[in-house]
Sequence to fold (104 residues):
Amino acid sequence: MNVTIVVTLLQTILSLIPQITDSKGVNQVVTTLLQIVPYAVKEAQQLLPMIQNIIAALSAKDGVTADHLAALKALDAQVDAAFEAAVAAYLANHPANPRTAAAS
Fold:
């Protein structure tokens, strides 16, 4: 599953939420989200190094000013913090898979 598919699916789910009127609909959305989250985390993990490489490449370019470097450093910190916060939030809300934990 690629980023475009995940984004489109999430946008579709978001647009359908006002039409959900029963617990069956909520269950379907929750089930779908549980299936999507691992792909979203994987995509984020794949995008993060690319973003960091762009920041590093720009930082090494001639003609980059001190203001540019400060902005790039702040952006790098922002990307790292956002990713780590998202992973921490996911892990806090999704303990180890009960089936996997039971099998160990």
Summary: Residues 38-95 form one domain. The two ends are 29 Å apart (CA to CA). The longest helix spans residues 23-59.
